[in-house]
Design brief:
The complex is a heterodimer of chains A (305) and B (321).
Chain A: H1 10-46, H2 50-55, H3 68-73, H4 79-84, H5 94-125, H6 131-141, H7 146-159, H8 166-174, H9 178-189, H10 193-201, H11 206-217, H12 219-235, H13 238-243, H14 252-261, H15 270-302
Helix pairs in contact in A: 1-15, 5-8, 5-9, 5-12, 10-11, 12-15, 14-15
Chain B: H1 2-31, H2 38-66, E1 69-70, E2 78-79, H3 83-89, H4 92-125, H5 130-141, H6 144-154, H7 161-168, H8 180-208, H9 212-220, H10 225-253, H11 257-262, H12 274-284, H13 288-320
Helix pairs in contact in B: 1-10, 2-13, 3-13, 4-8, 4-10, 5-8, 6-8, 8-10, 10-13, 12-13
The chains are: A mainly alpha (305), B mainly alpha (321).
């Protein structure tokens, strides 16, 4: 750090100070603008009519304020109505896809976190032969990019006759991810031995300790991990695209792509598409709003230390 | 997905240390009267181990096996030796898509790293506002599909606000996603928009480890922010930066979603990234064997990057002291 001691004339420092700060705030402001403006534009577009959008593309406010975009996305309009307003009339039902997304993400998150926590407990708090070897195997599993297992997993899901089912979408990530096991093990290891010993003296078994001591004490990282897992599975596209073929298992991400592909001859139904996009994105925004502080600081936790 | 695929490498060193301490724990157990919890452990580990073996280990081995077969899903896989690999090496579309992917990764990672570093430093040096950190993370909550569709609209040649502004400035409209030269950089930047906040927060976490008095001492000595960045921040952040860089590169190589919803590989294969080509081979042409061979090629590229990562992190750690 010898270089740090190099001095700069004080006059220069005084002159630069407010100027540099102003410039830095300008850059920060620009970043916030680029980050948030697209969200406003989604809303503005979703509340406009398609005719209005082509007539007045630069209007910062919704053109011909309407909710017909949302009605189209939620399947509340008849096909004729939809086509008249620039939609495809393809009869997509986003209520259903919303439900499918909720079911899949809840199933994945609930099971994955619980099973991973169980495994993490066995890896951190129980003594058994071969523990370190099995853990090493899990560790090696993190080296395989998720994308590599998709094709063979598709073949497997097909052999299990679970194609086009919600269970088929959930199954591969339902039991664990090496990361979840790893992440939770870190926290379980930090729980002081004395707490566990005190519970043992009180006559609690190891299973009871897991439910009554370990899980509650690690509730903060568990909730953080759960929220992030929920967001990840909600946003997943590639795997559901392979597995899902019909309405019965279509999740929001896949439905959006289908909506986009159904472009009517008059041009893309931007109003309906942006309304659908908002429906798909809103639950995660709300979830984030509830847990923002925790998630933001957790990235410090889970990231590099 | 990103947090799952991103954080593991960084945690490995800690895991190693933890493992070392757990072995000493076992040794104590052997010398003490503790008999171990074999049966209970088996119960606790069973679901995760089942998932690991069935949906991770088995598909990995099967994926490698399938790459040596001809397989169309309907009839059993037929062993064809190295045929798929020979075909791959002679397939100009494969090389083309590998090249397109590399081009994407270079633009995506180049811009994203500089932008994330800027944001992280601003969040550290300018303000410690948690709200700003939250705002910066918002696009990461969107799926790639949503991000792709929104920018498809913003950049639409006829009606998109982006092109309205451009033509308002008197410049010709740019068909961002419909033009062979513009498409890949555009997709790369869309994904920067979605991921930059997350990357910035990872770097920000690394910056938090740098003691504040270093900056204060430097300021007393009259160093400018610019100088402090190069003399304090960069050298001390280097190991963290190396890890973040490699793991974002690995994520970047797997680009698929954004391409699928914006350009579908077009125009004229200009955005036919490797993962998209693999998907098309498997689900469009039912050549699961050939698709598996290309997946193995991608796996090898990514493994090489992981090895590189270990080299860099080791080097980085000695650097930190």
């Amino acid at each position: 750090m010898a270089a740090v001691t190099t001095t700069t004339p004080t006059t220069l420092r005084q002159r630069r100070f407010p100027f540099g700060r102003a410039a830095a705030w300008t850059v920060m402001g620009l970043i916030v603008l680029i980050t948030l403006l697209p969200f406003y534009w989604i809303l503005r577009t979703a509340l406009s009519t398609n005719a209005g959008l082509s007539a007045d593309p630069t209007n910062p406010l919704p053109v011909d304020l309407t909710t017909s975009g949302f009605e189209r996305a939620l399947g509340l309009q008849s096909a004729e109505e939809a086509v008249a307003q620039g939609g495809a009339g393809g009869g997509l039902d986003f209520w259903r896809y919303l439900l499918n997304s909720v079911l899949v993400s809840t199933l994945i998150t609930g099971c994955q976190i619980f099973f991973s926590a169980m495994a993490a407990y066995a890896f951190s708090r129980l003594r058994w032969r071969g523990r370190d070897k099995v853990f090493g195997l899990f560790l090696a599993g993190m080296m395989v990019p998720a994308i590599f297992t998709l094709l063979p997993n598709f073949v497997l899901i097909k052999q299990l006759h679970l194609i086009d089912t919600l269970l088929g979408i959930a199954l591969p990530t339902m039991f664990m991810t090496p990361f979840a096991v790893f992440f939770l093990r870190q926290f379980f290891m930090n729980i002081p031995k004395e707490v566990e010993e005190a519970a043992l003296l009180d006559g609690a078994g190891k299973i009871k300790i897991f439910f009554r001591v370990v899980l509650p004490m690690a509730s903060t990282p568990i909730i953080t991990l759960a929220v992030l897992t929920y967001i990840t599975s909600w946003n997943d596209y590639f795997w559901p695209l392979m597995v899902s073929y019909s309405d019965s298992s279509r999740v929001l991400t896949v439905a959006l792509a289908v909506f986009r592909a159904q472009t009517p001859q008059t041009g893309v139904d931007w109003s309906g598409l942006m309304a659908a996009t908002l429906i798909a994105a809103l639950p995660m925004l709300v979830l984030f709003a509830c847990f923002a502080r925790r998630i933001v600081s957790s990235i410090g936790f889970t990231g590099i230390k | 997905m990103t947090i799952a695929s991103s954080s593991p490498p960084s945690r490995l060193p800690t895991g190693g240390a933890a493992e070392a301490s757990s072995t000493t724990g076992t040794r104590q157990g052997v010398s003490g009267e503790d008999r171990g919890d074999g049966r209970l452990a088996a119960l606790f580990i069973a679901p995760a181990l089942l998932g690991f073996l069935v949906f991770l280990l088995w598909p990995t081995l099967r994926g490698i096996y399938l790459s040596f077969t001809r397989f169309n899903l309907l009839t059993p896989a037929e062993w064809v030796g190295l045929d798929n690999y020979v075909r791959m090496v002679n397939d100009p579309i494969f090389w083309d898509s590998l090249w397109v992917t590399v081009e994407y990764v270079v633009i995506n990672i180049g811009v994203q790293t500089v932008a994330a570093l800027t944001i992280a430093v601003l969040l550290q040096r300018l303000t410690q506002s948690a709200m700003l950190r939250g705002i910066v993370l918002t696009p990461y909550l969107m799926s790639n599909v949503v991000a792709g569709l929104v920018w498809l609209w913003l950049l639409d040649t006829q009606l998109g606000i982006g092109n309205e502004i451009i033509s308002g400035l008197g410049v010709d409209r740019i068909p961002f996603l419909a033009d062979e030269t513009w498409a890949i950089p555009t997709i790369a930047l869309i994904n920067v928009w979605r991921h930059v906040g997350y990357t910035a927060l990872l770097l920000f976490a690394g910056l938090q480890a740098i003691p504040n008095d270093m900056y204060e001492a430097a300021r007393v000595d009259g160093a400018s922010e610019w100088r402090m960045f190069w003399r304090i921040t960069m050298p001390l952040l280097r190991p963290v930066l190396a890890v973040v860089l490699i793991m974002t590169v690995i994520g970047s190589f797997q680009v698929f979603d954004t391409v699928a919803v914006t350009t579908a590989g077009g125009p004229a294969n200009a955005t036919n990234v490797l993962q998209y080509y693999i998907y098309g081979s498997a689900f469009g042409r039912f050549q699961f064997g050939y698709a598996s061979a290309m997946s193995v090629a991608l796996l090898i590229v990514l493994s090489a990057i992981t090895v590189l990562q270990y080299r860099l992190t080791r080097a980085g750690r000695t650097d930190l002291g």
